[in-house]
Amino acid sequence: MRSVSIILPTYNEAGNIIKLIKAIIKNIKKTNLQPEIIVVDDNSPDGTADEVLKLTKKLPVKLLIRKNQRGLATAIALGVKKSTGNIVVLMDADFNHQPKDVSRLLKPIIDNHADLVIGSRYISGGGMHVSEANKLQFFLSKYGNFFVNRFLLNLPVHESLSGFIALKRTILTRLDSSVIFQGYGDYCIRLLYQAHQQGFKIVETPVVYGQRRWGQSKTKLVKIFFDYLITALKLRLNK
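Structure (tokenized):
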């Protein structure tokens, strides 16, 4: 049976993680794929790892705890390295990426219509909850994506920053993971860019961003925005 590995980097997600994992596994059952959940926790002081440990004996969940290193991209790299699935899914652990959309990301790969699928807020059917508090986030993300994808990198997507991605494992053997998985969410741009340069078929599927159910966001919006822009400029200049 084909299998899928879900990589979940965590830091202080104790209030989300059990519900999230159970919801992901329930959704994957629709695909007839064998699930494998890889949680990479950066030694969260809120007990996230303890919560995950409760599931490891009864569900297909692996827990990796990093005590001397932190960072989103390197956590994802470790999770990918320790995973075994034919397909790999990268997603957040705060319900921003909704478990109900996982099967939607997987379908084009299962049907052999794509090598890599990214969940997009900016195509028909996609979106996000926009409140007064995150209007700036929405504006920077939407128009930052448009500028980066269309003008700088000529990527065939509307969304290159979501980090909600499904891809065939075989792709990862052809890409330079040591270059891709650095920094924070800017790894997503490098991943898409390298995959596009290698000629892999990339498609988008609509997703609607959910709201964080517990805890606080770790994203420093303005800093992240400029990090993404700098990453895209470097890729363009080194083309």
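Residues 103 and 224 are 28 Å apart (CA to CA). Residues 3-237 form a domain with the Spore Coat Polysaccharide Biosynthesis Protein SpsA; Chain A fold (CATH 3.90.550.10).
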